[in-house]
Amino acid sequence: MIEIRAIVTDIEGTTSSIDFVRDVLFPYARKRLPAFVETHGDTPEVQHWLHEAAKEAGIIEASRQEIIEMLLRWIDEDRKSTALKALQGMIWKDGYEAGDYRAHVYPEVPARLRAWRAQGLKLYVYSSGSVPAQKLFFRHSDAGDLGPLFAGYFDTQTGPKREAASYAAIAEAIDEQPAHILFLSDIVQELDAARAAGFQTGWLLRDPAQASGTPTHPAYPDFDAITV
Question: Rounded to an integer, what distance in angstroms lies between the CA atom of residue 28 and that of residue 206?
Fold first, then answer.
C-alpha cells in the first residue's frame, strides 16, 4: 500500500451522525433564517451571499421575502448551495456560542484523529458545509475542541464533491501527491470522484444496511478499523 501522508474527511455520516445535522442544525437554521436575513440583510457579508443565492437561482430582481422563501425551500431540499451553506453557518455560529447544542462526533473519532496526528499525518476536512461552519462544528464538538487537529478545511467553493477536479484542487492546495492522500466518506459517488483524481479512499459504512452488492472501495465500520 502506498504511504498515506494526509487524510481528508467528510463530516456527515463519516465523523458525525447525519441525524445531528438533519434533526438539529437544519431545523435551527430554518427557524431563524427569516429573522436573521431581515436583521442582518444590509451587512456586507450577508448581502454578498444573498446576491450569490439570487445569481445561482437565475433571479435578476426579487424582494427580500422572495429570497427568504427560496432559501427555506433550499433547506427543505438539502440543496448543496454555497450561498445557503454560508448563511446557515452564520446562524449556527450564534447557536454554538449560546450553548444551544454541541456538534456530535462518533465516539472513536477524537482518539483516532489524535493518533493520526501523532503519527505525523496532516488532517483536512472537505464538506458541503461552509468552511466557517466546519470550523465551528469541530470547535464546539461534544468531545471538546477538535479544531487544532486539522490543518485545513475545504467546502464547495473548491468545487462539487462528486467531481474529480475538486479533489485535484485539494491535492494542489495542500501540496501533496494524490496517491498519498486518503479520502474518507460515506458517499460512494464522492469516493469515486476522489479515486478518479488519484486519491486512496475509505468508505465509512457505519450502517451495514447501506451496502448493496460488492463494495467498490475499502469499507470500514468506524475509524478504528482504518489502518494507515
Answer: 26
d(CA 123, CA 212): 30
What amino acid occupies position 155?
D
Determine the Cα–Cα distance for residues 202 and 190; give it in Å rounded to an integer: 11
On whether the CB atoms of residues 44 and 50 are closer than 8 A, the answer is no
pLDDT digits (tens, 9 = 90+) for 195-219: 999 999 999 998 877 666 667 899 9
Q: What is the pLDDT of residues 103-118, one digit of tens each?
A: 999 999 999 999 999 9
C-alpha cell at 124: 483536512
pTM of the full structure: 0.88
d(CA 112, CA 103): 17
CA atoms of 83 and 46, how far apart (whole Å): 9
Of 20, 49, 28, 37, give the one whose Cα is nearest residue 95: 28
- Backbone angles phi and psi of 12, in degrees to 5: -60, 125
Contact 43, 127 (CB under 8 A): no
